[in-house]
């Protein structure tokens, strides 16, 4: 199988059920999810092999689900089977609740950062928010899997708490926002 096909040289790309412009909102939405997946891979690479095994496993599952989310959004045909479902959103909520028990209660907003890994997870959080915004636009413009929107919303919360947990485990204090 060749890496290049030349079929997109005219600015169109193939989706399940048809071809669209490469700047179509559907392509923008699943492309941002693909970008997020790369940032998640980067965060995993920043993990020491002997630390955060639970988080590494969860992030790897999320990477697979991000591929599923992109595939869900890439469908323009009427006959659809979606991979991202409400149970995946619930599972994210359970993980968030589990990791939150390791953290002190929030008193103020915190600045993104701390350890390099926590900073990488904060980048995942903001890219997830952008993917969610693109998906909101897509769901308002047409028929697609609305569970992807819910999943991305919860996923950004997951990345936030994961960044806090990484800092707690490294004994690095979150830096609280101090209004100027």
TrEMBL record:
The molecular function terms of the Gene Ontology recorded here are: ATP binding; corrinoid adenosyltransferase activity
Reaction catalysed by this chain? 2 cob(II)yrinate a,c diamide + reduced [electron-transfer flavoprotein] + 2 ATP = 2 adenosylcob(III)yrinate a,c-diamide + 2 triphosphate + oxidized [electron-transfer flavoprotein] + 3 H(+); 2 cob(II)alamin + reduced [electron-transfer flavoprotein] + 2 ATP = 2 adenosylcob(III)alamin + 2 triphosphate + oxidized [electron-transfer flavoprotein] + 3 H(+)
Q: Quote the SUPFAM superfamilies the UniProt record gives.
A: Cobalamin adenosyltransferase-like
Top-level class of the enzyme under EC nomenclature = transferase
| Superkingdom of source | Bacteria
- GO BP, one annotated term: cobalamin biosynthetic process
Q: What is this enzyme's EC? A: 2.5.1.17
Where does the record place the Cobalamin adenosyltransferase-like domain?
3-166
Tell me which NCBIfam families the record gives. Answer: PduO_Nterm
Per its record, how is this protein called by name? Corrinoid adenosyltransferase
| Source lineage | Bacteria, Bacillati, Bacillota, Bacilli, Bacillales
């Amino acid at each position: 199988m060749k890496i290049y096909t030349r079929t997109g040289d005219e600015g169109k790309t193939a989706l399940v059920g048809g071809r669209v412009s490469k700047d179509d909102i559907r392509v923008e939405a699943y492309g941002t999810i693909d970008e997020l997946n790369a940032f998640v891979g980067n965060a995993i690479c920043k993990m020491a092999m002997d630390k955060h095994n639970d988080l590494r496993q969860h992030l790897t599952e999320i990477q697979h689900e991000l591929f599923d989310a992109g595939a869900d959004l890439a469908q323009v045909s009427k006959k659809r089977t979606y991979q991202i479902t409400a149970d995946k959103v619930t599972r994210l909520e359970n993980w968030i609740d589990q990791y939150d028990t390791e953290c002190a209660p929030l008193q103020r907003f915190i600045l993104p950062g701390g350890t390099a890994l926590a900073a990488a997870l904060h980048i995942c959080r903001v890219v997830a928010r952008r993917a969610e915004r693109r998906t909101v636009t897509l769901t308002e413009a047409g028929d697609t899997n609305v569970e992807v929107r819910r999943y991305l919303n919860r996923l950004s919360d997951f990345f936030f708490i994961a960044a806090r947990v990484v800092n707690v485990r490294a004994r690095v204090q979150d830096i609280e926002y101090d209004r100027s």
